[in-house]
Design brief:
10-stranded mixed β-sheet; alpha+beta; Alpha-D-Glucose-1,6-Bisphosphate, Chain A, domain 4; 4 helices
Length: 206
């Protein structure tokens, strides 16, 4: 088990990585799924053998309230249908923490429940906010769970210029679920999980 990293350099590196993803040209992405709530694209990840997913949709609320529902805190468990538990293990200054959370089984339990330990960081971005995270090799894996790994992930939330009580929410997710899984099952689960995330979030904010 590795010791906890120093939060400031990790936070800076994580933010820079997410800003770089946010600047990737549209031609590099391929549409994976589209619903009335969100569009999901994907491209091969630079971090592992799976995909980096990009999700985007307009959410009818102000930036701060949306991000409060996404980042680690009391709201997330109430509405996120995939998340089954969440504990804050360490809290640092500057909106940084380490959290452990578990996810439900998916696709008729082809994908068994997973556990993650993530470093999370929330910071300002343009007129809005960025909340981002990366998994750490920290703590013992609990029985009945496979330990998954999130490569740099994050959510940019900025108010719409002409309608500031609506926000554009753009997410970048690259999750290595680990365990013996068919890649096609992982790809199906990721695309549907991301569109469900938007519809669940919108219901929670009403």
């Amino acid at each position: 088990m590795e010791p906890l990293p120093s939060p400031a350099p990790l936070a800076a590196r994580l933010r820079n990585t997410l800003v770089r993803y946010h600047g990737i040209a549209g031609a590099e992405w391929r549409v994976a799924r589209k619903t009335k709530d969100a569009t999901v694209w994907r491209k091969p990840s630079e971090e592992f053998s799976g995909y980096l997913y990009k999700a985007q949709g307009v959410v009818e609320d102000v930036t701060n309230r949306i991000v409060d529902h996404i980042r680690p805190g009391p709201y997330r468990l109430d509405w996120d249908s995939l998340m089954t538990s969440m504990d804050i293990l360490e809290t640092f200054e500057e909106n940084c923490c380490v959290m452990r959370y578990t996810t439900a089984g998916q696709l008729w339990n082809i994908i068994a429940p997973r556990e993650f330990v993530d470093f999370s960081y929330t910071t300002s971005y343009e007129d809005g906010l960025l909340t981002c995270g990366i998994s750490l090799d920290y703590g013992e894996v609990r029985p009945n769970f496979v330990r998954g790994f999130n490569h740099p992930c994050g959510w940019f939330c900025v108010p719409l210029k002409d309608c500031p009580n609506h926000s554009l929410l753009t997410g970048y997710i690259q999750t290595e679920l680990r365990g013996m899984l068919p890649q096609s099952a992982v790809d199906t689960a990721m695309s549907s999980t991301l569109t469900n995330f938007y519809s669940d979030l919108k219901k929670a904010l009403k």
